[in-house]
Structure formats: C-alpha cells, structure tokens
Amino acid sequence: MEWTEGIVRNKKVWAPGLFTLSIEAPEVHPFEPGQFLQLGYDRPDGHLHRPYSVASPHETTLEFFIVLVEQGQLTPWLWQLNPGDQIHVSKKPAGGFTLTKCPEATTIWLIGTGTGLAPYIAMLRRPEIWERYKKIVLVHGIRHASDQAYLEEIAGYSEGFGSQFVFVPVVSREQAAGALFGRITQCLVDGSLEAMAQCALTLDSCVMMCGNPDMLDEMERLLGERGLKKHRHSNPGQLVIERYW
Ligand SMILES: Cc1cc2nc3c(=O)[nH]c(=O)nc-3n(C[C@H](O)[C@H](O)[C@H](O)COP(=O)(O)OP(=O)(O)OC[C@H]3O[C@@H](n4cnc5c(N)ncnc54)[C@H](O)[C@@H]3O)c2cc1C
Which domains does the chain have, with CATH numbers? Predict the structure, then answer.
C-alpha cells in the first residue's frame, strides 16, 4: 500500500471516545463520497492500519468520524492524537459504497449506526445526492442521546432543503426528545421509522446501510421480506451495504 504523511489539524470530541479527526493529506487521490482510506502508524512489531470512511468530500483536509474501541488495537492510538501529530494515510481510496453504485430511485434512505454516519456526511456535502433524489431520509442509530454528532450540520440540511430531507435519530438505550426509541430494526417492524420519515421503504427506494453487522443482517432480512434485495449492476435491486466489522 502507498502511504502519505498526514497531519492532524483538528480534533473535535463529540462525547468521550467519539471524535472527528481532520487530517491534512493533500496527496490522497481524488475519491467519491462514501469511499474509505486506511489510517495507521508504524509500531515496533510492524505497520498497524484500519479502514475508515472519509466523512468529508475530497479536499486537502479530510474528516474521519471515529469511535474508541477500548480493547481495540488502533483506536486507542487514534484517540490520543492531537493537532500537529502525524499519521499515515493511504493514498488510494477504496470501496463501492458510493452513489455511483446506487440504483435510481425516488427516495434514498441513508441508514447508519454509530460512526456509520460518516459516509453520509460526505455525501450530503456534495450536490449530487440533492440533484438525484427527490427525498433523502437519514436514519442514525445510537445508544445514548449524548452519542449524537454532526447535529448542527444535519439541522442545517433540514432548514435548507425542507421536505426533501428528513432526519430520523433512533436511540436504543434511553428515551430522547425528538428521537425514536429502540433499535432501527424494531422501529421498522413497528412502523415508527416510516411514520417519522413520512414515507415508505418500498421497491422504488434506494437503501444505503452502514455500520454494525447485526443491524445490517437484520435489516437485509426484514427488507428482503418486502422484496428488497442487494443492488448489483447485473441484477438490479435496492440495497447498498457497507460492513464495518
Ligand atoms: C470499510 C470500512 C469503513 C470503516 N469506517 C469506519 C469509520 O468511519 N469510523 C470508525 O470508527 N470505524 C470504521 N471502521 C472500523 C475500523 O476499521 C476499525 O475496525 C475500528 O476503528 C476498530 O479498530 P481497532 O484496531 O481499534 O479495533 P480491533 O482491534 O481491530 O477490534 C475490532 C473490533 O472492534 C469493534 N468495532 C470495530 N469498528 C467499530 C465501530 N465503528 N463501532 C463500534 N465497534 C467497532 C468490533 O467489535 C470489532 O470486532 C470501518 C471499517 C470498514 C471495513
């Protein structure tokens, strides 16, 4: 893999262990919103790196929305970084979790858990998604209300785009004002997800899903019961999925 030396320019802490690093890395090749890069560093026992969705479109400084995995190998190192620190960034982007790989549809659902919000932030910052879909539903599943991130930016889309954009926060471990309570899958089954989105998850939707593998598997099963299936160029469907682990 080819690496470039990035410099941390900003660290925004949303909640303990939940943060966005802004990394200046002008040598990264152009990429599409939704693609990922590798972040890493040299340890005595070798180079340690992991993939991260870029939470911003291609520019000289790139955002990464990261959660500390206490027992993890790389994230404890990422969490202690501060502005001015150096980090290895892969030069070549990868991944097909992009609008290019999405089917045409009236409505696009952007469904993510935790840091699975990252690719959608990158997409919402560019005009393409707004030009291509009549309605955009952003669903963000988190455990606690304090895990919310990018809220001001998301509120700006609601204000700026009116009924074209709906934000549905789903909080699983506590009741929170303005959010659905439970798991995304439960809210799909009991109808509250579509009620808050004010539209239905039907065969003429495009559904992007990203994050926790349990959510992805269960959503794929539930949506499969409605006839929605993975989208492939050779075999069109509705679902475009990114697994984080
Ligand atoms: C395509 C892709 C894009 C990714 N983008 C992001 C991103 O934008 N932000 C991000 O924080 N992570 C992202 N990840 C996950 C990331 O690559 C690492 O797996 C994660 O940061 C843990 O690394 P670690 O070395 O600390 O943990 P490891 O020692 O590798 O332990 C991995 C374990 O950590 C847990 N885990 C991994 N990712 C998460 C997560 N996001 N939330 C909760 N638990 C997790 C799982 O239990 C997993 O088995 C992405 C993964 C993939 C495959």
Answer: 3-90 (2.40.30.10), 99-243 (3.40.50.80)
